[in-house]
Amino acid sequence: MKKIVFLMTVLLTGTFVMAQTSSLSSVATEPLEKRVAFTNGEYKLGKIPLGKPVEFTIEMKNIGHDTVTLLNVQAGCGCTAPNFTPNEKFGPGQTSKILIRFNGGTSGPFTKYSTIFFDGGLSKQVSFSGEGIPETPQAPAQAATAVKSTTPVEKAKVVKN
Question: Looking at the whole model, is its pTM more than 0.85?
Answer without folding.
Answer: no
